[in-house]
Amino acid sequence: MRPDERPVAIAGAGIAGLTAAIALARFGFAVDIYERAGALAEVGAGLQLSPNALRVLDRLGLLDALSLRAVAARSVTLRRFGTGRPIAEVPVQGSDGTPYLSLHRGALQAALLEAAGAEPRIRLHLGHPVASVSEHADCIELAFAGGTSARARCLVAADGVRSQVARAAGFADPSPTGTIAWRTTLPVRDGIAAPTGIDAWLGPRRHAVAYPIEAGAAVNLVLIDQADAAAESDPVRHLLRRFSGWDRRLLGWIEAAAPPTPWPILSVDAERYYRIGTSTLLIGDAAHAMPPYAAQGAALAIEDAFVCAAMLASRPSVDAAFATFEAERRPRVEAVRRRVAFHRFVYHLPGPASLVRDAVLAVQPKASLARGLRWLYDWTPPDIATSSPAP
Ligand SMILES: Cc1cc2nc3c(=O)[nH]c(=O)nc-3n(C[C@H](O)[C@H](O)[C@H](O)COP(=O)(O)OP(=O)(O)OC[C@H]3O[C@@H](n4cnc5c(N)ncnc54)[C@H](O)[C@@H]3O)c2cc1C
Questions:
Q1: Residue identifier of the C-alpha nearest atom 50 of ligand 1
Q2: pLDDT of residue 390
Q3: Which residue of 160, 262, 272, 283 pairs with 304 in a disulfide if CB–CB is 3.0 to 4.6 A?
Q4: Position in ligand 1 atom list of the atom nearest CA 159
Q5: Within 6 Å (CB) of ligand 1, which residues are found?
Q6: Where are the beta strands (DSSP E) in the chain?
Q7: pLDDT tens, residue by residue, 20-60
Q8: In this predicted model, what pLDDT tens digit does every residue of 65-84 receive, in sequence order?
Q9: Residue ID of nearest Cα to ligand 1 atom 11
């Protein structure tokens, strides 16, 4: 498709929206990003970024800068919840040496914002909540909550798990999964033993994950629990009670960290389609938010963003580009969804079943664990040439 027509519109300046904007600009498209928030704060906590996502960020010239604010992990250590004893080490590096990083979400957002700000083809419109979209013969029209409107060639809707674009198109709202993620961070200081890599403690109906962020200066902690557990008003006391008897290193971090914030875990209906009409495409969490048991939400959002831009650049029309996108992305996203369900089942096994799991994992050679994840981590972005970053 020729890039020198009307701009492409993007709803949402999150991970998917910013990545899509940068990729589109590198393919020569003018882009208008419409973001609901009036200012972009560095929100969120830690993030693991696997090689499949980092290959995209590398293509966009962002990997080196990100690596400076991250920690590279060779493997994820699965541990018994009570003793912290390692059950297995799952290798996570790409076969081609692409790293697996842990970092603060704000570091990723800052890198994306800086790259988007350097692209003259990208215009960021803050304080523009998209309310609805209508299709015309030669363009689409976005209506904003404030009553104004804008036209574009097509819309890439990256407006997150509670996507208004999806809702306006008649899709069901996301549903609670019955689990809750408690997230916090703490600085590494005297008396705090920092994790050296990514640790996951597996327990009955809950698990916990800790990893270094901010180049090792802080620890990110995520505790996944059932949402039905009656919460006390003090989140630290609540978690110390819910995770009582777990590894003392983990409990020490809970006590020392800022009070954790609860995030209800939502997922969207697997039947949701990515294309709406001929000129609107849902990407990232708006299309397929899923529980964070495989640390792939942001990674899939980044993959989606690049593939969407590459399809618009290489197909003759928006319709053809979005149809190819859907055909290519659906099987991959469904495979990740199955993996997430598998992790949820295996991580939360109770009593004797968990001992069988541990015994099976313990005898698996590392190479075999790595082979089982190649389809996920060795994904590479389509080989369609982009231009260099704007000088
Ligand atoms: C506990 C937890 C841990 C996680 N850990 C990981 C991990 O380790 N690795 C990983 O890959 N993923 C992880 N994820 C998932 C990851 O955070 C998400 O998948 C990712 O942020 C989705 O990006 P997105 O751009 O689609 O949506 P978002 O980042 O939510 O961005 C959506 C943007 O759209 C804007 N917006 C909303 N409505 C409108 C509107 N109407 N008009 C205009 N703009 C709008 C929002 O303000 C926001 O800026 C985790 C998630 C959770 C809950």
A1: 292
A2: 56
A3: 283
A4: 34
A5: 11-17, 34-37, 47-48, 129-130, 158-160, 164, 181, 183, 222, 263, 265, 284-286, 292, 295-299, 301
A6: 8-11, 31-34, 46-49, 71-73, 75-80, 86-91, 100-104, 122-125, 130-135, 140-144, 149-152, 155-157, 175-187, 198-203, 206-213, 218-226, 261-267, 275-276, 280-282
A7: 999 999 999 999 999 999 998 777 789 999 999 999 999 99
A8: 999 999 999 999 999 999 99
A9: 298
